[in-house]
Amino acid sequence: MVYETLPRTVRILLLGEPGVGKTSLILSLVTEEFTEHVPPKAEEITIPADVTPEQVPTNIVDICVAEQTVEQVAEEIERAHVICIIFSVDRQDTLNKIASYWLPLVRENCSDDFRKPVILVGNKIDLIDYSVIDNIWDIAEEYPEVDRCIECSAKSLVNVSEMFYNAQKAVLHPINPIYCIEEQELTEKCKRALTRIFKICDLDGDGLLDDYEVTMFQRKCFDSPLQLQVLDEVKSVIAQNIAGGIENDCITIKGFIFLHCLFIQRGRNETTWTVLRKFGYDESLELTHNYLYACIKVPIGCTSELSYKGQQFLTQLFEKYDKDKDGMLNPTELKNVFSCCNRIPWHNLRYTVPTNDKGFLTLQGWMCRWTLMTLLDLQNTSAYLAYLGFNFLENESQKAAIHITREKKVDIAKKQSSRNVYQCHIIGPRSCGKTSICRSFLGIAHKKIKPHANERGDSNTLENCCINTVLVYGQEKYLVLKEIPITRVSDPLQPHEVNCDVACLVYDVAASRSFEYIARIYIKYFAESHIPVLIVGTKGDALIARQEYILQPEVFCNKYQLLPPQFFNIRENKHDVFVKLATMAAFPHLKHFASLTGESSSWWKAGIGVAAATVVGLVLLKIFSFQKR
């Protein structure tokens, strides 16, 4: 899968003094023979894509100084993609005019940010028996936009097609973004791009490319295998030319960068550009928008989750960078994971996902964080999957890593949810214990955590979200708790604050006016909705105060056919409330659990349904795997 940003056509402009052979070169290319009598100027010629090596249509434009004004020439310079300045090798004055007139004219009509590539062409080499290339290099050093210098002959047809091919290459595979001619080395942006590519192809993360990894790189970039003998020759060239380029018979990052530098120095820009474009880079060595952001539409009522292929890729990525094999990513290892990206996307993880006591990311926490980002910020997930090489390693777009769930109304109709990720909104008055519930979900309710100096919140932390896994009848589900901030009791809830898979209405059992708020919230926003609701009383170790409301919590729940209030005490660290919330989200048709005949019987029947679905899923997975093999 290549994300190219090549021009749809290449426009080549020929400049130079009268009589240097501009028109003859064009006619010799087209007719493949030399014409003694040529017109002052050739008409614009279009070469079809199927007869050009790069399969891109090419327009060739001739200039006649005697017939065209300076303004018309300037206009053609602006329209051109590449400019060939022709001089006659037997006339020193035509060579002198390149630096004194033609190159300054080209610069005047190009922006400072983008200088068009220039090819210097010495025509009529059939008239001399020596090379003039050495006389041109001084000009090339003064003008970095000079891509290359070529000697040719329109009369004897020497290097005529090569001249136009190189002009085309200068546009399609430009040298300036990737190579600094003055310093004779790759540009810093090119080095950074190749370093990212190296890290992606380093499958085991040992800092070396072994034979298997090089062969895979070759096959995926160029659609052809690399013969073992050729690979040995490549490694021999690296070893002979740069110290530290080969280690343990493997290619190091130093050797990898040198190899591409060598390609460019030998005029094989297209090799490096093929690699760069395969990994999503444009002519400015930036990752293209299409490469980073896959077109994934999430219909209303549906949500986005990681697919099995996405989970598998991220699990392998975690294992690759877990250098000490302790099942966690410490800050250094996490930084190394995202060294291929423009920045680390997450901070302050201990308040968002499960971590160890030091705040290091476990595999469970790693998958939770990706799951949360996929749910809330799918575009960001798409971009970071691209940065990390999913497109290249899986040879598919990020769409393959994402699963779009069916509409929620279908889940309700079928009386079972097929989702693996559920959103629970924690709603209640201030200081009722919402934050304690969220922290208890992550197992850090009692812990006094000193934040690291470099810790700061990310977008999802600021949205008061946390995520963990919950077992629902033996199936692992992800439950996202989102704390809805309440400034004033009188403030109305916004639609995005109400819409969720299950709502947890929280009140403080010790505060006599606490239940009234959530009772009114339920009646106003949830009584007529399809969203399951669980009422939770916090601070269960305190004395239970009588609520100053027309109905006490137990009576209220009975009236509206809800489960009885669940009491939550952070000191007990029980997770039964979270299991109930996840189960209610998984079976949205059972909104009024208490209205069913026998509460435990209904939950048992739901569990049987989940178990049956699991068995069917495993059978289908085995059948699919067998057919794939």
UniProtKB/TrEMBL annotation:
Family annotation (InterPro entries): EF-hand-dom_pair (IPR011992), EF_Hand_1_Ca_BS (IPR018247), EF_hand_assoc_1 (IPR013566), EF_hand_assoc_2 (IPR013567), EF_hand_dom (IPR002048), Miro (IPR021181), Miro-EF-hand_domain (IPR052266), MIRO_dom (IPR020860)
Residue ranges constituting the Miro domain according to the UniProt record: 7-173, 419-587
Cellular location(s): Mitochondrion outer membrane
Pfam families assigned to the protein according to its UniProt record, in alphabetical order: EF-hand_5 (PF13202), EF_assoc_1 (PF08355), EF_assoc_2 (PF08356), Ras (PF00071)
Main subcellular location: mitochondrion
Record-stated family: Belongs to the mitochondrial Rho GTPase family.
Keyword Transmembrane: yes
Name of the protein this chain belongs to: Mitochondrial Rho GTPase
Entry function: Mitochondrial GTPase involved in mitochondrial trafficking. Probably involved in control of anterograde transport of mitochondria and their subcellular distribution.
A single BP term in Gene Ontology: mitochondrion organization
Gene3D superfamilies xref list: EF-hand, P-loop containing nucleotide triphosphate hydrolases
Stretches assigned to the EF-hand domain: 309-344
Protein's membrane topology: Single-pass type IV membrane protein
Membrane-spanning segments: 603-624
Cellular component terms (Gene Ontology): mitochondrial outer membrane
Keyword vocabulary terms for this entry: Calcium, GTP-binding, Hydrolase, Membrane, Metal-binding, Mitochondrion, Mitochondrion outer membrane, Nucleotide-binding, Repeat, Transmembrane, Transmembrane helix
Organism field: Arctia plantaginis
The enzyme's E.C. designation: 3.6.5.-
Enzyme's top EC category: hydrolase
UniProt-listed PANTHER family: EF-HAND CALCIUM-BINDING DOMAIN-CONTAINING PROTEIN 7
GO molecular function, one term: calcium ion binding
